[in-house]
Amino acid sequence: MTRLATALAALIALPAAALAEEARTTPVLVLSEDFESAPYLFEHPNVEPAPGEGVDGGTAARFTYVGYDRGSERIVRRVRLDERGTEYTLNYDVRFEEDFQFVGGGKLHGFGPDRSVTGGQDDRPDGWSARVNFGRGGGVRTYLYVQDRPGQWGVSRGNPDFAFEKGRYHAVSFHVRLNDVGEENGFANVYVDGERIVTHEGVAFRGTDEDSALISRFLVSTFHGGSSPEWAPVDEDGEYVNVHAHFDNITVYRGRYIRPEPGAAPPESANGDGPE
Ligand SMILES: [Ca+2]
């Protein structure tokens, strides 16, 4: 056979399903922030660059959680992905400082559509959100606003056997796939340092196939609470205090990419055809 004929024969021999699966799962970088140089993807008064505090001695972002009577001040921003779709993975490295208090828990970053539903808002077919929560004692949970949720607040799954350690970086990966409309087959799974910690399946994020309901925003979202004083970090006299965490190496991949450890370089395939 000629070289062309051999190549064609090899292509035909590959099952179409295998090709489709490969195309669907090859991760593509769509957003990246390593805080090494301004301007940054987002700005907030409680976030500042911290040279030398990054995973490998580079620059990280220092987040200051300011205790107040609703937990801690909301550090919330919505960052466009410049594309939209049904399946993405958010990765970030986080180090909760020794002064950090988990108290009763709070929010960590995630994903949303054009108009997220958060904070006990009424549900809408094109509205939802998917975030990670830190829990009492450093636990980790999902926190999802979904269709037809049973109460005012989001639904959540956790893992009683895991806790973040303060004073060291952890790699968090949050892999989210939307449901098919009319079905409860979406998921939001949390990985820490490459290990799956929380599996949250059977989710109906969206109730419409409109583009506005697709994943299109990286939600910067971290604060304590809850919305009452018992969620706030306090000192031994009960006065509100500030506590801190560092974040570095925020990336969003289309598809599935689980970071195995803080600062890990992505695989070759993940560098393929991302935006220049
Ligand atoms: Ca960095």
Summing up helix and strand content along with how strands pair, one would put the structural category as: mainly beta
Number of folding domains?
A: 1
- CATH fold field value: Jelly Rolls
Quote the average pLDDT: 91
Percent of residues in helices comes to under 10%
State the CATH class.
Mainly Beta
Main beta sheet: 10 strands, antiparallel
CATH architecture: Sandwich
Helical segment count: 2
Shape: globular
Beta-strand fraction estimate: 35-45%
pLDDT below 50 for ≥5 consecutive residues: which ranges? 272-276
The arrangement of helices and strands along the chain is HHEEEEEEEEEEEEEEE
* Hetero compounds: calcium ion
Q: If you compute it from the alpha carbons, what radius of gyration comes out, rounded to the nearest whole angstrom? A: 20 Å
Kindly report how far apart the N and C termini lie: 39 Å
Give a count of the beta strands, DSSP E runs of length 2 or more: 15
Oligomer: single chain
